[in-house]
Amino acid sequence: MCGRFSQALDRTEIVNLCGTAEGIETVDVRPRYNVAPTQQVAVARSTKRGREIVGLHWGLVPSWAKDRDVGSSLINARSETVSEKPSFRNAFRTRRCLIPADGFYEWKAEGGTKQPYRMTLGNGGGFAFAGLWERWEASADRLPLETFAIITTIANSLLQPIHHRMPVILDEADHDAWLDTSRPASEVLALLRPFPAERMAVRRVGTRVNSVAFDDAACIAEDNCPPAPPRPQQLGLF
Question: Which of 18, 52, 97, 106 is catalytic?
């Protein structure tokens, strides 16, 4: 799964990555080092007006949902079932999006604790996750809520020792194809594959990222300390 990522990119980087500047002036774009579910994030999507950058909340709320709380459990969509699962199939057909990022986090049990790792491209540059977005309208007197989910796939060989799944990172050459809803589903599903391991890097980071209260550059600082050994089991006295 993907439950935390970084979007430590400036406006120019996001515009260049997403291929448009439309809408970015209305979005709160600032370097983000610890993006968490329910938070608003800069996302690129295609609409009838053209491609635009908007602020969407992380955690997809289907249009038919009774309340918005369902979004907290729909932060990811599995590539294997995204075109069939009721929560995602309509969005997969007509509401696909790009989520700009420059890294994501996973945790691994080490020495009795959960150790965070940050995954990036090998060159440290920005990239885009494959995503879906939805519009949910609670009532006529309230503004619609627009949300998104990140699609995941099986982990590549670099990530497998840490986690069995990873978010779908799209090759930049495939951005247009992902957003093109006129393409056959089979072509689009073929894009949902593990990103090449040789083009990625994994770094151990400090536990500051464990708390959503922190969102600063210290969250991505590399931690070179070796994992603590497991605590010895104390024997009882007889």
Answer: 106
